[in-house]
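Record 1 of the preview.
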Amino acid sequence: MSTDHWAQVRRIALPLVLSVIGVVGSIGASRNVHFEHRAADWFMILLILKGTLALYWLRTHPIPVLWATVASTLIYMLMQYPYGPVIIPFIIAVFSNIRRGNRLVGWSALAALYIGHVGGRLLLGINEQGVYQIMLVGFFFVLLGCISELFRAHRDRVTAAERTRREAELRQSSEERLRIAQELHDVVAHHISLINVQASTALHLSDRQPEQAAPALSAIKDASKEALVELRSIVGILRQNDESAPRQPVAGLDRLEHLISRTSMAGLEVHTVIHGEKPPLPTGLDRAAFRIIQESLTNVVRHAKATTATVRIQYGEESIVIQVDDNGQSLAGTPTDGNGIVGMRERATALGGTLATTRTPVGGLRVVATLPLGG
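->
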């Protein structure tokens, strides 16, 4: 049986069980009370059933049900029927309303029943209750309200914790989608740029020097194959495919020489200058450093019309400084827009670092990224 079916069964069973308990208990109480109490009759049973059967709608209409139990309980008491389980539906309705957050209504119902009970007895001249009994009833009502408030506070804490957990999951999912989107951009932009340059070279040489077009076509084949492998790895993450591990290592500075080699095939002469000894790097920092260099070289190949580029890496005790210079043509201003530079800056910022773009003395572009080791 499903959860919904069980909830419906409980919703029907509670009023029926309480109806039986209320009628049987009140009739039994009427046979063992003092003579001044009213004898059991059909109206007493009607009042009991009114309060108990109203609980069927407690989940959907909690406030009307609460006031229905207040009315039936108050009339029952003022008519001097024998005390019995008649107050149970009222207790359940008050507890349910306060726990759901209807605090003002719940406390108002407690006050209304208490004042109506005490004041009604005084008006009707029913004075068998002393001050002690009146104070005891008041204490019971306050205790009922306080217990309900404790359960409400507990429910609010659980709800808040669940909401915070869901928000954290959504935020983490969003950040993961952004990271994967950036990975896709870097992979596709880099390899497509190399393929485009090599294809242009092959077309240029195919008529005049066809024998020299073969290396360019071979470079296109290798770059496209590598792009497909990286794309398959990223798409596997999107599909949550754990059947096999990625077919190549995670992008990091260990693949820097491979990146330089691939870029050099596109006709760009790349020099590497490294200062210091590379420390063990967290995966995120290692990947970000590699992608920044990759995207910088991609921009050089695509836009700078440069012949040489220099990659400098300074390993410090607290940070890594990456600088990529090229000797490309001078353009007006300093480039700060575009998905490539924006993506590199986002990678650096996410690690607590910075990224700046300026012009070199010869007019080329300089990209400087500072990535803290503790980012």
